[in-house]
Specification:
The protein is an alpha/beta fold. 28% of the residues lie in helices and 18% in strands. A 6-stranded mixed β-sheet has the order 10-17-16-15-11-14, sandwiched between helices. The chain has a 4-stranded mixed β-sheet with strand order 8-7-5-18, with no helix packed on it. Strands 22-21-26-27 form a 4-stranded antiparallel β-sheet, with no helix packed on it. Helix 2 crosses helix 13 and helix 6 runs parallel beside helix 7. Bound molecules: beta-D-glucopyranose. The site of beta-D-glucopyranose has 8 residues, from loops.
């Protein structure tokens, strides 16, 4: 009886369930485990992103449209009282940017996090993200697949933490080697930088996250970034920094472009019709949206008409002011619709509407492994005299490890891209930023050290050897340790951060430290942790130098693997190292004397101190990086493209046409290794170009004794100059030199090709 009753109840329940599923659930739009029937026509995934954006826009009110074209403020920074009153920020995921979605239309919130070298500032939310080596290290790998993996890791960790948009993809050229943000970028060559950043962004976006590329454009130094006007002619613009962006945008289909703080030829980058409307949107066909750097919007009508699509982080210019401008006809409704369309089509294209992030614990162990691989592939062996490296783990009896807190960690880059160190800063009260700089005002004085101890990793390789540490503060103590050790490894570092620039010199007593150690022990190895190039007045005194950049959370382990030869270094410099600042195009960072820093103006309507505007004349023009050293016939400390291996390579058999270059690379040493084979082209003299430009490369992996033929296609645009009159790229007829080798200054093969 009881059983019978139970069966009857179950049957009734089943009928009710079916009834609910078939009739009620679709009406309520919830409760079914089946994918919901598309409630709105724009939820039909078979339609194009543009069509879906159009459909949803038909249903939107003016206020809803305005709500999408600006951020809703930033916790801790100013929001308008009206915005604050809505309380909508409470919905934010806590990242640098938040744009509330429109629930009634099924449009998600946009949650953006800084993510130049990993998801930044997760710690405040109790989350963890993998601190990666700097993107300059990633660029030093010259490995497109690696750049892709790097981006994919960031995209995954963004999603895992509930973000659906990245703020990374920095690709400002290293025009100014003392730029404090070079570590977030991809080096000095537009083709290398553009291709690497495109892969990185593809990797991010394949995870279902909107990617961005920044800072568009010519934010090539931090000094005066809020006020300075970078004045360049159009040919120079298109062939240098803009070319990196062009390749990055076109090859990645990036969703967002962040316009920069500075002015370009007088107009702020976020209200510059030439760079935004004419070049980015018209010439390159960019379909995504332009987002301002934080506090980088300076007007309503001018910015809207020039092509800015979204103000961040607040609504000073694109909130009520824009609504009024649209109502008054000063900004056509069609332009507002274009902004909204660009944002929505990007959301549909990226998949964030159909497939929102589901927070979960990030893959910590997978991330650590990848961070180590990136560091191993990005560390450049600059010098290796007397076969000093690799160290022989079987024979080393004693080692001195000196300086740079190598007992506890590795340094990282500061500013908005800072990834939080797991467990906190490995160095308490670490100093980094100079008082009075914007960096110090916003992010404080400290540099962050990640807890990856080179000392421990080295000891693990040679557990029986005597490996001792000296902090380097006392030069004679360091020298004494070096003297009683079989070899000495000196770690030097240069802190760098957004919001300030640098000198090429290592801070403090580090140059003296290297010299003191080298004088005590001829087998001295220097490991440099820096955001970019540094001068090495002691280069002739030491046997070996490794450039480790900011090597990330497995930096210590990666360095040990290279020092002991478990990994054969294969990276090459994406930037030129000058001997001294006197060899740079500008003896000092332009504007160093002229300007006064704004206090915090991120998101603030009124900077508390008015900075003084000034002009930057980058008189080197086309001659960025190695092109300057080549054209001026200056000998660099280490040339662009330089990097050694524990094996050696030989080049032969060059065949060149205007379309393709073929040659052979042979591993002539006794161990497996990878060579980054580079192709440069010298244009006809009539073009007045610098002597050579990189046009192609390949990373060739070779077993000992192995030889491979490499064929590289030449893209005609990359052989061209930008003709301002025709407003187009021009492949000038004439004789072109084709140069092949292991660096811009180690050309092994050359030929001439004729372009009719
Ligand atoms: C930086 C951007 C960053 C933004 C948001 C700005 O200071 O220049 O790179 O994405 O802040 O944090």
């Amino acid at each position: 009886m009881k059983t019978h009753n139970a069966i009857g109840q179950m049957a009734l329940l089943a009928v009710l369930c079916v009834l609910f599923a078939v009739i009620l659930a679709p009406l309520l739009g919830q409760g079914s485990s089946q994918p919901p029937t598309p409630a709105h026509p724009w939820m039909d995934r078979s339609l194009s992103p543009d069509r879906r954006a159009d459909l949803v826009m038909e249903q939107m009110t003016l206020d809803e449209k305005i709500g999408l074209v600006h951020g809703a403020g930033l916790v801790g920074f100013e929001t308008t009282p009206e915005e604050a009153a809505t309380g909508v920020l409470a919905r934010s995921n806590g990242g640098a940017g938040f744009v509330p979605g429109i629930p009634r239309l099924g449009l998600p919130d946009l949650n953006m996090a800084d993510s130049a070298v990993g998801v930044a500032r997760s710690g405040a939310h109790g989350r963890y993200s993998t601190p990666l080596p700097s993107t300059l290290a990633e660029a030093a790998s010259w490995d497109l697949r690696l750049a892709h993996d790097y981006g994919a890791l960031i995209g995954r960790e963004l999603r895992d933490q509930g973000y659906n948009m990245a703020l990374g993809g920095g690709v400002n050229l290293t025009r100014e080697p003392r730029n404090g943000r070079n570590f977030e970028y991809q080096g000095e060559d537009p083709i290398l930088a553009g291709r690497m950043v495109a892969q990185l962004i593809q990797g991010v976006q394949e995870q279902g996250v909107i990617g961005d590329i920044k800072h568009y454009a010519f934010n090539d130094q931090e000094t005066g970034r809020h006020v300075a006007s970078v004045n360049l002619d159009r040919r120079v613009m298109r062939e240098t920094d803009l070319l990196a962006f062009e390749i990055g945008v076109k090859e990645s289909n990036v969703g967002a472009v962040m316009c920069s703080y500075n002015r370009i030829n007088g107009d702020y980058a976020c209200e510059n019709s030439y760079t935004l409307n004419e070049v980015l949107k018209k010439a390159w066909g960019f379909k995504g949206f332009v987002i301002s750097d934080w506090g980088g919007t300076h007007s309503t009508v001018k910015a809207a008409l020039a092509g800015l699509d979204q103000e961040q982080p607040g609504s000073v210019h694109f909130g009520d002011a824009l609504k009024k401008a649209v109502e008054a006809g000063a900004v056509p409704a069609a332009r507002l619709n274009d902004m909204v369309h660009r944002i929505l089509r990007t959301e549909f294209a990226a998949g964030i509407v159909d497939n929102p992030p589901v927070p979960r614990v990030v893959d910590v162990f997978g991330g650590l492994e990848m961070a180590q691989r990136f560091a191993e592939q990005g560390t450049v062996l600059l010098k290796n005299a007397n076969g000093q490296l690799p160290l022989d783990a079987g024979r080393v009896k004693s080692l001195a490890v000196i300086g740079s807190h190598a007992d506890v960690g590795v340094i990282s880059g500061g500013g908005s891209g800072q990834v939080d160190p797991p467990g906190g800063n490995a160095v308490a009260n670490a100093q980094g930023n100079t008082p009075g700089t914007e960096a110090d005002a916003i992010w404080g004085p400290g540099a962050v050290w990640h807890p990856s101890s080179p000392l421990k990793a080295i000891r693990a390789k040679v557990p029986k050897a005597q490996v001792e540490f000296a902090d380097g503060a006392d030069l004679s103590a360091a020298a004494a340790l070096a003297r009683r050790s079989a070899a000495a490894i000196v770690f030097v570092h240069q802190p760098s951060s957004e919001g300030r620039d640098l000198s090429l010199s290592l801070p403090g007593n580090q140059d003296q430290l290297v010299s003191a150690v080298a004088a005590a022990n001829p087998r001295t190895i220097v490991v440099v942790e820096s955001g970019g190039p540094v001068a090495m007045p002691w280069i002739g005194e030491v046997n070996a130098v490794l450039e480790a950049w900011f090597p990330g959370i497995r930096g210590g382990e990666a360095l040990a693997a290279i020092l002991f030869g478990d990994v054969n270094p294969s990276a090459k410099l994406p930037v030129t190292f000058a001997k001294s600042e006197a060899d740079l195009p500008h003896p000092r960072v332009p504007g160093t004397d002229a300007q006064e820093f704004a206090s915090i103006d991120i998101g603030a309507t009124q900077p508390t101190r008015q900075p003084i505007p000034f002009d930057i004349h980058y008189s080197e023009g086309l001659k960025v990086g190695y092109k300057w050293f080549d054209a001026e016939d200056k000998q660099p400390l280490f040339a662009f493209g330089h990097g050694l291996s524990y094996t050696t390579f030989a080049y032969s058999g060059l065949q060149a046409t205007p379309k393709e270059v073929t040659f052979a690379v042979k591993n002539t040493g006794s161990r497996a290794g990878a060579e980054i084979a580079q192709v440069y082209v010298g244009l006809p003299a009539s073009t007045h170009e610098p002597p050579q430009r990189l046009v192609a490369w390949d990373k060739v992996r070779l077993a000992a004794g192995e030889s491979k033929r490499v064929s590289l296609k030449l893209d005609p645009q990359l052989l061209s100059i930008f003709d301002v009159e025709k407003n187009a790229w021009d492949l000038v007829p004439g004789s072109y030199k084709v140069l092949v080798g292991g660096s811009s200054r180690a050309i092994a093969l050359s030929a001439s090709v004729q372009i009719p």
